[in-house]
Specification:
This protein is mostly beta strands. It is 0% helix and 76% strand. The protein has no helices and 13 strands. A twelve-stranded antiparallel barrel has the order 1-2-3-4-5-6-7-9-10-11-12-13. Strand 10 and strand 11 form a beta hairpin. It is elongated.
């Protein structure tokens, strides 16, 4: 998977991930799965200071998808990630550099259900019916930087700095109706893909040395394969109270 994020203040982020997952149906627990991933993260910042942040690491995720009633699904996921990173920020000839290790934990769930009255008559460019799947999702993550090694440079001055460990908590809640349909794709209709368009509203809280709360609207468009439900293309625009963020990702799924 590849993704790109650009927000209003000019900061840009690129993420890439290779992930291998295994799923197993369970009689009373729905589907249980596990995934191992390798990630690379790179950020170029211009606000509040120019600089660059790079992080690479590994993650392990377990998840469960189960029916809570007919046409209603609950998905739970838990992730643990380890990483190493470095950062360099500069201002007026002053340069702060750091190398660090990270440990992150994430738990979340999503609840989706089909509205029985939502089967709408489609326009000509859509095959079959349009379905509406209201969804509610919650995620809470904790990331901690440890073994921080920092330095300061200004001209001929160079000093090693003592920096304590830091921790960031991120909580996000979002609601969105997902409009699900099969577009007519002409000569490539054999791909059998389904398009989902999900306008929504989300709130995010970031707690660290300074707390930041923001809410706003977003629209999420993604293309999924009918056979396995994997995302093939993911496009999102988010407008929170303090920033406007654009992101897009491309996922290549290779069955084993």
């Amino acid at each position: 998977a590849l993704s790109y994020v650009n927000n209003r203040n000019g900061n840009e982020t690129t993420n890439s991930e290779i992930r291998v997952s295994v799923e197993q149906p369970a009689k009373d627990l729905g589907t249980i799965g596990g995934a191992f991933g390798l990630q690379y993260h790179n950020s170029d910042t211009v606000n509040p200071n120019s600089g660059k942040v790079e992080n690479k690491g590994t993650s392990f995720t377990v998840y469960n998808i189960m029916n809570v009633r007919e046409n209603a699904f609950l998905e739970n996921h838990l992730m643990v990630a380890l990483g190493q990173g470095k950062a360099e920020l500069g201002s007026n000839g002053q340069i702060w550099s750091s190398k660090f290790e990270t440990v992150s934990y994430l738990y979340g769930f999503s609840l989706r259900g089909l509205l029985e009255a939502s089967l709408l008559d489609p326009p000509d460019f859509i095959e079959g019916k349009i379905e509406i799947w209201p969804s509610l999702s919650f995620d809470h993550g904790v990331s901690k930087a440890k073994a921080v090694r920092s330095s300061f440079e200004f001209g001929s001055i160079y000093e090693d700095l003592k920096v304590g460990d830091s921790k960031v908590n991120v909580t996000e809640i979002s609601v969105a109706p997902e409009f699900k349909f099969r577009p007519k794709l002409g000569n490539v209709s054999g791909l059998g893909n389904t398009l989902l368009v999900a306008p929504g509203y989300s709130c995010q809280r970031i707690s660290s040395n300074l707390d930041n709360n923001s809410c706003g609207t977003n629209i999420h468009v993604f293309l999924v394969g009918d056979g396995d439900g994997q995302k093939l293309f993911d496009f999102q625009i988010q407008n929170l109270t303090d920033s406007k963020t654009f992101s897009a990702s491309l996922n290549l799924v290779v069955p084993l």
